[in-house]
Amino acid sequence: MDMAKVQPRSGEHNLTDIDVQREGFDWEEIKKDFSWYHTGKVNVAYEAIDRHAENPHKKDQVALLYSAPNREESVTFEQLSKQSNQTANILKKYGIGKSDRVFLFMPRTPEFYANFFGILKVGAIAGPLFEAFMEQAVRDRLADSEAMMLITTPELIHRVPVKELPALEKIILIGNSTDMKDEQYISYEEEIKEASEAFDIEWVDREDGMLIHYTSGSTGKPKGVYHAHNAMIQHYATGKWVLDLKEDDTYWCTADPGWVTGTSYGIFAPWLNGITNVIRGGRFSPESWYETLEKHQVTVWYTAPTALRKFVSAGDDIVSKYDLSNLRHLLSVGEPLNPEVITWGLRTLNLRIHDTWWMTETGAMLIVNVPSMEIRPGSMGKPIPGIEAAIIDHEGNKLPPNQMGNLAIKKGWPSMMRAIWNNPSKFDSYFIKDWYVSGDSAYMDEDGYFWFQGRLDDVINTSGERVGPFEVESKLIEHQAVSEAGVIGKPDPERGEIIKAFITLNPGYEASDELLEAIRQFVKTSLSAHAAPREIEIKDSIPKTRSGKIMRRLLKSWELGLPTGDTSTLEE
Ligand code: 6R9
To answer: What EC number(s) is this enzyme filed under (predicted)?
Structure first.
């Protein structure tokens, strides 16, 4: 892979390239920044919100800058502290305490954040759900976690099969509703009027539960990834090092809190660092996102390849209509960052896009690009300090540079999941010897940069060659006609598998055999003959998860006429 390297610009950064590579780093250094290091009293809600609310220089700073098509609001650290004290009082009144599971099934509004911290303040475990989930998805998650309380809205309650959830004691409804007769329901509006703004926070152990995030497995039931308060150490540190957050930043993470990025980096990292955090409700369109960046003068922006690819397709002209001069640092997560997108960032925004790799299970970033590092487009970067990453084989042996294998992380980083809820054997299956095994296929080059190839299940074996779908997809979208691409291996009697690509076209392009052949030739001549898709099919859209990941396994099931498995996280 011979691609241009993107050199860092000089300037002030929180972490240098030397830091990333240093040996002997100790997390102990980071712990000193937390108040619990000195007081012994732990609760992430205190560190993220109350600590700033108690600080005369910070209490009036805007913590949450909310912006939706029909609502604009600024909430200071002091206000968020009081609001979450109120929600904590409501929860406590109804018997919620340490280790109880309280789920949030509601849109991304300021109330979401007040309730989220209320849950943590009583020592309970928060379970955020995507608001677009339908009945089965909601039932599976609430039943598996044995949630005692649900916080939702009158619109969404109709998707909650309350009668089928014996553990669910109470439901808080935010918004006026006529279904309030049943005594199982609690009116948020009624309660909040009465609730005190003072609350004695429940101090917990750093190993106590904080959060459950459900990820949908490729088949079967969703897994409840369980995280402890201790994860804050890494949320805070990566916020500093990788998001490069500084005192006056205005930060925007586009992820929904139903997805781990929306909590680790949409909530904890910015607020642990005392930063003004933009939350945007409503739907995605390139124009409305550029508007948000401009209006709030966002300085640091964390988003995903799926959105960035849409910006690329929307064309360079749109960018010039907005004043994005405040933007200084741009990052991506969730899927491989196509080199084409990095080129676009340099061309249109004059900014490098910094890829970051991690998973729900890892709780926080592990392999990253920091501002001081050279970026190698197509690579996800290097491990953060304190992390040992390697490519291993089935027995847990390290493979030499440039060999594809399973990406693994040496156990024991602060934000690692503590369990899979209700499923210890699933948890155990993640580990080989001392290694946490990601299931992602990757290789490491001689300089320690990691290169993602695909989920192990997605790697294609064609005529004896192993091809990662990411490389082919990235090449496809470099063709001017192609907007998005999803690539799978299709069983073939002769070649084992052939490469089949599903693409969407950019505006102004019509499907034709000539076009498909031109696209094929383009991949063949600019990537390799064996990686050129034998079949290309044009689609109106590529199936994606709500967090924006291409669902290759769904493309494959459709292609082969197989059962689709769990599709609860599929975007409409
Ligand atoms: C944070 C998050 C995890 C899976 C992961 C990998 C893919 C995430 C990536 C990436 C290539 C990156 N992934 N970041 N692939 N480059 N920078 O996304 O968590 O939803 O659990 O997904 O996403 O396949 O294993 P989660």
So the answer is: 6.2.1.1
**Residue written as token pair 């064609």:** 462
- The residue whose CA has the least distance to atom 15 of ligand 1 is 335
ipTM higher than threshold 0.85: yes
The first and second tokens of residue 437, run together, are 């095994």
In this structure, what DSSP letter does residue 361 have? T
Rounded Cα–Cα distance for residues 149 and 156 (Å): 15
Q: Report the b/e string of 407-422 with b at 16+ CB within 10 A.
A: bbbeeebbbbbbbbbe
Lookup: tokens for 453: 């190839």
The DSSP string of 470-531 is: HHHHHHHHHSTTEEEEEEEEEEETTTEEEEEEEEEEPTT----HHHHHHHHHHHHHHT-TTT
pLDDT per position as a tens digit, 110-128: 999 999 999 999 999 999 9
Binned at pLDDT 50, 70 and 90, residue 59 comes out as very high
Q: Which residues fall within 8 angstroms of residue 273, CB to CB, at 6 or more apart?
A: 236, 239, 240, 243, 245
* Best residue among 130, 452, 550 to mutate for probing ligand 1, ranked by most atoms within 8 Å of CB: 452
Q: Which residue of 358, 367, 384 sits with most ligand 1 atoms within 8 Å of its CB, as the best mutation to test the pocket?
A: 358
Give strand ranges (E) for 69-107.
71-76, 101-105
What 8-state DSSP symbol labels residue 554? H
**Looking at residue 228, what DSSP letter applies?**
E
User: Which of the 8 DSSP states describes residue 89?
Assistant: H
**Residue 214 Cβ contacting ligand 1 at under 6 Å:** no
The answer, yes or no, to whether any atom of ligand 1 lies below 6 A from the CB of 438, is yes
Answer for the pair 210, 226: CB distance below 8 angstroms, yes or no: no
Ligand 1 center to 545 CA (angstroms): 12
Ligand 1 atom at minimal distance to the Cα of residue 264: 1
Q: Is the pTM of this model over 0.90?
A: yes
Structure tokens at 201: 């926070």
Q: Per-residue DSSP letters for 23-76?
A: SS--THHHHTTSHHHHH--B-HHIIIIIHHHTSTTTTTSEEEEEEETTEEEEEE
